[in-house]
Amino acid sequence: MPGMTKKYLHLEDGTVLEGEAFGANNETLGEVVFSTGMTGYPESLTDPSFAGQILTFTYPLLGNYGVPKVVYQDKHLLKNFESERIWVQGVVVGTQIEYPSHHASFATFDNWLKQQKIPGVTGVDTRALTLNLREKGVMKGKLTNSGQKISWKTVDTPGTIKKVSHNQIISYLPKGKPARTIALLDCGVKHGIIRALLRQQYKVIRVPYDFDPLKLSERVDGVVCSNGPGDPKDWTETVAIIQNILKTDLPFVGICLGHQLLALAIGADTYKLPYGHRGLNQPCLDISTNKAYITSQNHGYAVNKKTLPQDFSEWFVNLNDGTNEGIKHKKKPIMSMQFHPEGCPGPFDTEWVFGMFGEL
Amino acid sequence: MKTNKVLLLGSGALKIGEAGEFDYSGTQAIKALKEEKIEIILVNPNVATIQTSEGLADKIYFLPVTPFFVEKIIKKEKPDGILLSFGGQTALNCGLELFHRGIFKKHQVQVLGTPISAVIDTEDRKRFTQRLMNIGLKTARGKAVSTVKKGLGVAKNLGFPVMVRTGFALGGTGSGIAQNVKQLEQILTNALAASPQAIVEECLTGWKEVEYEVVRDKNDNCITVCNMENFDPVGIHTGESIVVAPSQTLNNEEYFALRQVAIDTIREFKIVGECNIQFALNPKKFDYRIIEVNARLSRSSALASKATGYPLAYVAAKLALGKTLPELKNLVTGKTSAFFEPALDYIVVKLPRWDLDKLVAVEESIGSEMKSVGEVMSIARTFPEAIQKATRMLNDGYKGVIDVSHNHNSQKELLEKLRQPTPLRLFTICSALYKKVPVKTIAKLTGIDAWFIEQLKQIVQLFDQLNRKPITYELLKTAKEMGFSDSQIADIYKLKEATIRNKRLKWGITPKVKRIDTMAGEFPAATNYLYMTYNASESDHLPNSTIPSGFHIIPANSLVIPAKAGIYLNNSLNKSGKADSGQARMTKNNKNNKVAVIGSGPYAIGTSVEFDWCAVNTVTTLRQRGITTIMINCNPETVSTDYDYSDYLYFEELTLERMLDIYDLEQAPFIVSVGGQIPNNLAPKLKQRRIPILGTQPEQIHLAEHRKSFSEILDKLSIKQPAWAKVGTVSQALRAAAMIGYPILVRPSFVLSGKAMNLIYSEQEFKDYLNVCRLDLKEYPLVMSKFLAAAVEVDFDAVAQNGQVMIFAISEHVEHGGVHSGDATLMLPAVKINAHLTQAVSDTAAKIIKELKVNGPVNVQFLIYKEELFVIECNLRASRSFPFVSKITRHNFISLATEIAIGKQVTPIKPSPKTPQAVKVAQFSFRKLRGADPVLRVEMSSTGEVVGFGRDAYEAFLLGELSTGKKYPTQKSVFLSLGGMRSKLAFLESVRELVFIKYKLYATSGTALFLKENGIETIRVGKIYEGIRPTAIDLLIKKLIDFAIVVPETTSDTQKNIVTKSYSDGYQMRRLAIDLGVALFTNIESARFFIRAISKYKLEDLSIKSWSEWIN
C-alpha cells in the first residue's frame, strides 16, 4: 500500500527483498527458514525451536484469525501458546491481515508482534523466497529498515540458544490421580508436549536441559527429551545426561531435538538438512507396522540412519525424501521421533506415542 | 483376487448438481485403471464427455445408468469388479439398487473401493447419525414429524430457535426458522399442509460451513487432502456458495479438530477411496456438527483436486484396486509420496455460475437447493485478487466485484437485498460497502464472516481512491494487486483499456506466473500447472528465456495498437479482400512450436462439457503432432484443466487482458474455435492487436456473425433466409413486423433478464412485449425475423480447409423450428428428409463455407419449410454437436480441424453409408429450478445431453429418453392436455396409437371433448380450479399416470407469463409434474416420437450393444 514504511530482508546470497514494515520497528538477524503450515502462527511463533530464526510462511495470508488472549492452564503452562513469548527473530509474510475475525481473537498479528518487539515484513513474494532457500539452502538473513546492501563479513550469527530452557524444576499434575511420573528434559519444550503428557494422566517434572533427572528425589517412570533449537551437537550436556539415563532401564522418548540428542548419545551422527522440514504435512511411515502418519515438523537437522548402532533400528521414515524420522531400541523401551506428535500446530495422528509409556 | 475387468458407471447427462466434475473423475479413474492393465467397461450415455472418447475405456455402453440396463450389461460382459463412486449420485443410486436386488452376488461382481455397507449407512440419515453418535461425533439433532404437536415436542427438546424443512413443497413454502412456539405452529401448519412430513431440527443458521476431502486406503492410512470454507453460511447449498480453499477463518485448533473428526468418520465407515465431509462450525465458540458425508467423488472433490493439484479421483481409483497411499507417488512432483496433505501457497476462490436469466418464472433466491449450472475457480495470492479474477471468469459481464449498476440502490434497498441471498449477493455486499454500510451490519444480515467482508471492503476502498485520485504508479500497482482489471480501471478513468495496459507496461507492472506444486515450494514440481498474480515479484515459469522477466520490458505486440470500439473489421476486410490464412501464421510466427488453446470457461446453459471435449481433443492432437500445448481455462469441472492433458496449463481468466499477458510471455498463436462463445468473442479483439490466430480468421467469423454481412452473402449466393429487419424505434419495429408478417422471432441486441429471444404471434403481443420489456432500441437495436412455423430444422456440422468441406454430418431435429438447437432432439443420420434435400443442404452449406473461406470447424443451421431450404445461422467454430457427430461417424472432427489449424493438408472424408442410427436427447434440470416453466423455447434451457443408438431412430430416441431419467411406462396410463386446435389435430394420430396399445387416457375438458368428437373416449379430469375430480393434481400426486403431455397453446403462452406475470393452468400442471418427478412432454413432436417409440419397442426389446458393436 502506498505510504507505508519499508522494510528489507537481506539474504546472505545478496538478495534484497523489499516489503512493508509491520510489528516492531527494530532490525534483526537470524537464519531464514520457511514453514509450509497453513494455520497455527501463534503456536509456531512461540515454538522455542524457532529461536534464532527469521521465519517466513509459504501461505500468503497471515493473521486471519488474530491472536488469542493468553490462557494459563497451570502455572508455567499455557493452554493456547507453545511458550510464554515469541521466539522467532522476525517474520516474513506475503500479506499481513489487518482485520482478523475470530471469536478467540484478542489482538491483531501486527499488535502482537509490536508488543513482543518482533519485527515483520509484509508484501514479500514468499514463494520466490522459499524457492531460493530450497535451491540454495537456508541462509542467514537480516531484517533492516534500509535497502542499502550490508556486508555479511561483519555480521555475527545469533547468540546462544540454550536460554530457551527454563532454569527451574517445575512439576505439573494431571487432572485426577497420576498414572505415572515422567521427567521432561527441557531444551525449549513446547507446552503442547506437556499438555499431551498430562492428557495421558502423567505427572510431569520439567527439568532444565542440563539437569540429570536421575538426581530427582522423586522416582520417575520414564524420561522425555524435548524439542529445541539449533545444532544438536551444541547440546553436549544434554547428550551426556541421556547417556546416563540409557544406562538405567528407564523408558526414554526423544522428540525432535530430543530424537537427535538420543542419536548422538548412542553414537550415531546428525547432519544439517539443506532447508529442513517445517510444516504440518510431513508424511512418515512406521516401518514396523507399515502405517503412515501425517506429522507436524520443525527441524533443520536430521539423524544419519546409516550411523545407527546395531541394537537400534529405524522406526519412522519420511515418505517424501527418505530421511530418518524415528529410531527405536530393538529390545529396550528407548525410542525417539523427529516429528512432533503433539501437533500444536498440526495434526494429532501420532499422539498415540505419548501413550506408549503406559505400554512400556 | 486379482481384478481383470471392471465396470465403471458414469453419471449420465450433465444436470444441475451433477455436471462436468464426473467426467473429470471418471476420466481419471480410467487413467488409473489403464495403468494397471485392467479391462474397462464404461456405462455412460453422455456423448459429449471425454471419458466416452475413443482410446480410453475398452468398451463403452451409451445406455442409461439404471439397474435394468446395468444388470443386462453385467450379464453380457461378466466383469469381476464394479466402481460406483466415480459417477455421482446417479451411479451410486444405481449401484445401491443393484446390490439390494442381489445382482452383484448373483453375477459375482465385487464392488471395488468403499464397501456397499458404508454407502448404505452414509445415505441413510438414521443409521448415519447413530453410527457417528456411537463414536462420539456430533450431527445436527432433529426429527421428522407428521403432526404439529409432535413437532412442538421435538422443538421443546432441542430448544429454540429451530429449523423446519420439508422434503417437498410447492414454491418453497414450508421451510423456515421458528424462534418460538407460535412461529413454529404457524410454519408447521403450512409445511404439513403441503407435505406429509416436516423435519424439525436445531437451527444452525449463521454457522460456518466447512468441508474436508478425506482419503483412506485399505490399511487404514488416512489423509485430508484439502479443507474448504464456504463464504456463505450454513443454509446455502455448497453448490450455490462461494467457496475458498484453504479455510481462512479457522484457527489451528478448529482446523485440526475438524480434520480429526473427518478422519474418525471415514475410519468408522471404512471407506476405501475418497469422501467428502461437510461441517457446520459455530462461529461463536468451538462446536461443530457433521452435516453430510458423501462416500464418493463429488463436485467438491473435483474442486479440491484443482485447488490443490492432488488428483483425488485417480488416487481413489488406485486405492479401490487395493493399492495403499504410501505406495503411490505424488504425480505433481513425481518424486514425493501421495500420502501427504497438500500445502497451498495461494488462495483459491470458487464462484458458482447461475443462468436463471435464461428461464421463465424461476425463483431468483438461493438457498438449500442447488440452482447454479457451473462454476469458476480463481487462483491468486490474496483474497481480493482471487475474488475479482473469479467474477471476470464468470463471463457474466462483470469486471470485478464492484458492479456500478448496483451503486444506484439506496442504503435501505441494499439492506433489504442483503437479507435475501440471490446470485447477485457478492455485488450487493460491495455496493453496501460503497454506501458505507458497516462491515458488522453486513456480516449480521448475511451471516457471512466479517473477515470476508473486510477483505471486500479493501477493494471498495481502493475503488473509491481510484475514483478520487489521478492514476499513479503506486495506485495502479495496488489496484492490480487488488485484482482490478485494466478495463475496470479504464472505466473509472474513462480511458480505453489499451491506454491503461500501455501505461502499466511502461511502468513495468506485469503479472507473474506461479506454479502449483502441492507442497508450497518445498519440492519442485514436474508439471506445469500455472496461475498468474500481481502479488509476486518473480515468476516460477519463464517460457522465453531470451526475454528477461520483470521490469521495463515492453513487449511490442501488445503496445502499439490502440483499441478501437465498433465495427472496424469491415473496413480492414474490404480493403484486403481476403483474410490471412492460418497456416501462414503458424510457420511465420510460431518459431517456438507452441500453440495456446482457449477453453470454454464456466459451464452454463449453452456451454457445457462438449466444448471441453473439443478443447481436450485439440490439445491431444497438437501433442501428437509434437507441438507444445498451452491450455487456458478457468473451470474446475473440466478435464482440460487437468495438468496432464497439456504441456502448460494456465488456470486463468479468459479475458483479453490475460490472453495478451500470456501471449507476451509465451508468444504462441491461439486456437479460438473450440471453446464456444468466450474464445469466439475474444478472436476479433486478439486479431486487432495483431495476435496470430490459427484456423478461420476473425474477419471471417465476423462476416458470418454480423447479421447484415451474412445476409448479403446469402443474397449473393442466392440462398434463402427468413425475412428479417433490424429496427431502432418502436414504430419501425411494428412496421417491420407487419411487413415480415407474424409470427416473428425477436432478438434484442442487449440481453435482459428472461427477455432475450422471443416468439411473437400478433401485433398486440408485440406491443405488450415492447411495453413491458422497455428496450432501449436506439442504443440496442432489435433484430426480428420471420418465424417459419412447423419447419424441419437441420444442423450441418463440418470441418473445412480453405473453404472446402473436408468432412460433414447432417443431423435432423425431431422438434420443429422454434426450439433452440441445444434443446432439440437430433437424429443422425437424418431420418425424414429425403436424399434430394440432404444433397441440397450439403451443397448450400458448401457454397457458404467456400464464400467464407472457412478454415476449421463450422456449423450451419437450416430450416426446411415447405420443401424449401432456409439458412438461419452459421457459426465458424466447433458447435455443441461436434462430439456427437464425431462419435457417431467415428471421425474425429476436432482432430481434423486441429490439423488444418496447424497447416497440415488434409484429404476429404466421405460420409460412411454404414453410420449407425443415433439420437441426441437434451437433459433438462427443471426440477432443481423452482418455478421455471418447463417448456421448450427459442432460448436454450437444457443443461446436458445423452445419446441413444438404435436399429431405428425410435429405439435410439427411446434409449436416449430413458437415459435422461424418464421411465419406461408400466401403468399404461397417460394424461393429456393439448392447448390449441393445431396441437390437438397434430396429436390425434398419436392418441389413436395410444388407444391401439391399450393405454388409459386422462384428458382435460377441451382435449377430452375434441377426442370424443373424434371417437376416442377419455377420462375427463379437472384443471386446477375447475372443481372436477379427479383433478390433474390428483393424477400427478397419486402418480396414476406414466407420463403427462401438457402442450401450451402456442409457445407464446409462456411469453405471456413474462408480460403479465400470471400463470396459466398449463403452467401449473407442467410445474407440478416436474416437482413430482412425473415424466412430462411439452412439445408435440417429441411426444409423438415417444409414443411411436413405446408402441414399437418394449423395454425388453431394447438393444444392449456397445459403441463398437454399433459402429462395426
UniProtKB/TrEMBL annotation, chain A:
Catalytic activities: L-glutamine + H2O = L-glutamate + NH4(+); hydrogencarbonate + L-glutamine + 2 ATP + H2O = carbamoyl phosphate + L-glutamate + 2 ADP + phosphate + 2 H(+)
Family assignment from sequence similarity: Belongs to the CarA family.
Keywords: Amino-acid biosynthesis, Arginine biosynthesis, ATP-binding, Glutamine amidotransferase, Ligase, Nucleotide-binding, Pyrimidine biosynthesis
Location of the Carbamoyl-phosphate synthase small subunit N-terminal domain: 5-144
Coiled-coil residues: none
Protein name: Carbamoyl phosphate synthase small chain
Binding-site positions, L-glutamine: S49, G228, G230, L257, Q260, N298, G300, Y301
UniProt cross-references to Gene3D superfamilies, sorted A to Z: 3.40.50.880, Carbamoyl-phosphate synthase small subunit, N-terminal domain
Organism per entry: Candidatus Gottesmanbacteria bacterium GW2011_GWB1_43_11
Family annotation (SMART domains): CPSase_sm_chain
Class of this enzyme: ligase
Annotated GO MF terms: ATP binding; carbamoyl-phosphate synthase (glutamine-hydrolyzing) activity; glutaminase activity
SUBUNIT field: Composed of two chains; the small (or glutamine) chain promotes the hydrolysis of glutamine to ammonia, which is used by the large (or ammonia) chain to synthesize carbamoyl phosphate. Tetramer of heterodimers (alpha,beta)4.
ATP-binding found in the keyword field: yes
GO biological process entries: 'de novo' pyrimidine nucleobase biosynthetic process; 'de novo' UMP biosynthetic process; glutamine metabolic process; L-arginine biosynthetic process
Catalytic site: C256, H340, E342
Region described as CPSase: 1-178
Known function: Small subunit of the glutamine-dependent carbamoyl phosphate synthetase (CPSase). CPSase catalyzes the formation of carbamoyl phosphate from the ammonia moiety of glutamine, carbonate, and phosphate donated by ATP, constituting the first step of 2 biosynthetic pathways, one leading to arginine and/or urea and the other to pyrimidine nucleotides. The small subunit (glutamine amidotransferase) binds and cleaves glutamine to supply the large subunit with the substrate ammonia.
Pathway: Pyrimidine metabolism; UMP biosynthesis via de novo pathway; (S)-dihydroorotate from bicarbonate: step 1/3; Amino-acid biosynthesis; L-arginine biosynthesis; carbamoyl phosphate from bicarbonate: step 1/1
Listed EC numbers: 6.3.5.5
Record's keyword annotation contains Transmembrane: no
